Amino acid sequence: MTTATDTPENRRPAPAGAHDGAGLALRLPRLIWREIFVSYRFNSNDLWSTVVPASCFVTAAVRNAGLGPYDAALTLVGAVAYFWLFIYGSSLINQITGVEEDRLNKPFRPLVTGDSSMRGAKRRLAGVHILFPALGLLLGVVEWALLWQLLFMLHYAWGGHRHWFAKNLLIALGVVSQLAAAWQMVTPITTAVWHWVLTMSAMTFLIIGVQDLRDVEGDRTLNRRTMPIVLGDRLSRGYFAASFVALLPVTHYVMVAPAGSHWWTVAIDVVLASLSLVLAARVLLLRTPAQDHRTQRFVEWWYTFVLATAVVLL
């Protein structure tokens, strides 16, 4: 006997689109995880110069504004997403336009290893170009997002990276767009905060060329005019060492001294001085590409530590 629920009409196959939708739902977590993994592979070399220190500055702004736990957590989640996209767009265009360079200097990057195709990288760049300013608009910092997009286009796509002065200047302006956005997404920027932002930008202009010490052979092959190539290794290292020593009074008078005399300001001064002197010694004494790479990591840790101190100094 056939029941009403067992008729041929009720046994029709599900529409093809239903299977496609179910398949997509099953694949979606894997696709999302894949995109996170690929973005990490593109960003992994630059997180300590962007996502981590900028998030520290956001934390300082959160404390300064006195946000409650829920608002603070929500703000930090938005900040991490923003600065992840901040560096992702830059990393993508850098690696899309510099595959041959990366074969020489950074063979671990995803376009060289095959973790991403060139076509996939270009699609991701198009997506970031849309998502990044949209998130900036949502967070109230769209002007800084657009400035950063302009700067990294000038830097990578239009050749600013080929001469040390243009490269250093564009990166220093990038620090302004990074730190101004970090503070403004939480609370209005004050004069004291601008002192920090502009000082960090100026100091970055002086020392960012340390990253070029490790890549001299590849940069020379590609006809780049980095500071170590233009000035020579010895003179460049002397310049960087002097710059790190010159940071000592700058960080003290601009950043630490305005917070007053306390045991913790003395401790911060000591740590900053120690890091600066270690960096000066490293650029003078440790000269292999592997040692120069490690020195660049120390520069990033110095940058992060300075911005982390803003949590108690600002």
TrEMBL record:
Major localization class: membrane
Transmembrane regions listed in the UniProt entry: 72-93, 130-152, 164-186, 192-214, 235-256, 262-285
Transmembrane as UniProt keyword: yes
UniProt keyword Repeat, yes or no: no
Membrane association type: Multi-pass membrane protein
Matches recorded under Pfam families: UbiA
Lineage: superkingdom: Bacteria
Subcellular location, record wording: Membrane
Keyword entries, A-Z: Membrane, Transmembrane, Transmembrane helix
InterPro entries the UniProt entry points to: Prenyltransferase_related (IPR050475), UbiA_prenyltransferase (IPR000537), UbiA_sf (IPR044878)
PANTHER family: CHLOROPHYLL SYNTHASE, CHLOROPHYLL SYNTHASE, CHLOROPLASTIC
Protein known as: UbiA family prenyltransferase
